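Lab channel / #folding
Pinned by the channel admin:
"Please post every new chain as: sequence first, then the structure tokens as a reply. Keep commentary short and put observations after the output so the thread stays searchable."

First post following the new format, from NK:
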Amino acid sequence: MQYEAGVLMDMNQVFQEFVTVALRERLGVTERAFGEHVIGWLDWEGRVSLRPDLAWRDGARWMFVGDVKYKRVDRRARNADLYQLLAYATALDLPGGLLIYAEGEPEPAIHTVRHAGKRLEVAALDLSGTLEGTLARVGTLAQRITGLRRVA
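Reply from TO:
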């Protein structure tokens, strides 16, 4: 019997960490200000904690929220992912947020929530090609985040 050595990686975690660090560098913010944070509770009783992959704060005020998914998205983002983003945006009283998928349709999608007016944006980060090309596409995502950022 022959054995092969290998490495097992959680690609969800690898993708999330790559996107978070690359965005942080592009936005010129610290780890304390931008990244994965426990942002509080969905309910007043404190039973449902909220921990988005991307949350940006300026002092005590939350400015942006987003989530990173290592899966393919098509024209219709997965409902559960949109519900999750809506919960984050609602809990932080933000006008919306951004879902970033590992691959999918090149055109971004925008969903405006009825009766709430929350703007849920969906984007795919194409990982094919060179590192420089991927980082350039991260730069485009950083511009979108800057546009979504709540002004203090």
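NK: Strands lie at 34-35, 40-41, 49-50, 54-58, 61-73, 96-104, 109-112, 119-124.
TO: also worth noting, The longest strand covers residues 61-73.
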